[in-house]
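Recap quiz, item 2
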Amino acid sequence: MHLRTDIQTPFHIDLDWWSSHGRSLDRYLREILGGQAAEDGNPAALVDYIDPQTAEVFQLTAMWTQVLTQRAHRADFITSTMPMTNAVLRALIENRNRPMSAVQIHRRINRGSPQALLRVLQSAHQQYGIAPARGDKG
Amino acid sequence: MQARIDAPEYWIETYQPNDADLEMLYEHMIESGRPETLESLAARVIEHRVQREVANRRARASARGKVYQPADRYEAGQMLLFTASDGVEGTVLGVRPGNNPSYGRYEVIRVRIGDVEREFAAGITWEHPLSLTETDLDPKALSQRYAPIVTPPLGTRLTEERDWVTYGDRWILRALLPELNQGHRNLAEAVIMLAGEPLPASLILNDLDLDPNVPTETRAVALEMALARDERFRNVGALEAPLWTLRQQL
């Protein structure tokens, strides 16, 4: 990665990376849901997700919506014992992949330091396709 | 769906102390200058969060008529105020049926806000936080009910903060503690020796020349922390109600 980044640089999940590497984010989301994942319907189809604070509606996959409504924001969604890259990916999933900086992610997962998280973010591209969100201030 | 602020699930499953909670506690502590138990601090966090929610609901109610409520239904052309989205105003452009059965039957309104179009839920039949009124919440009652639940995660968070210190069951900001030097500890040693029995910090304080403007409870915590670090002293009482004696007297 050649882009110069710092603790204020916003990162997101590069969804193109997942498809170009033959990997499925939906499979990861399904693992989060465990046995409660809904199996019916087209996994790529987008459905409404209603924001719990503002009631604004966003379009996400059914699996992503299910994770947000049933798992995200719970105390055990991001824990202090899970690998840091995993915690970062979950923070971005919870944020509907709106870009987050190391400082913002640190505030959410409350582990390490923004500087340490930046190193995790810089190395998380190979594992989870997490990359700087160019031109987006998050 | 995120739990309501007055539901046990909100505090048991989703609550995590955030920077705003800590900032509020910091300001409160600076103002009071006295140590408090963790459960008391937890109750303050809950009360503050609920009060903020009540204020938001009042603001929504006072906007009257045109304020957006997800339980209501709307038609194209209506002007709405979105209080939970930074108070922006928008015009309804159209209505479509909702497409996620897990929310039940509902509609989605397309709204022009400035130069962008956004979508909001309408006609929902479940209780969204925006639909509640301020009369539904009692900050005092909720803080008493949920303080024991919030206490453990708050304690974990405060332990990680350099500004906070604890002794026994009391917490205070490090910056509020008066400084105790070697002379103070020597004097404390003499007081306990002369008493010939274990003493609480509040009694030892009477003979130390600490700033009387600092609340007694704060001076007591500062003294207890200083004695706990000094090899000459032993706490033979409970951690919550220390009694200090000298190691040589044991």
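Chain B touches chain A at residues 1-2, 12-16, 18-19, 68, 70, 82, 84-85, 98-100, 102-103, 108, 118-121, 124, 128-130, 153, 157, 160 (CB under 8 Å).
DSSP finds seven helices and nine strands in chain B.
End of item.
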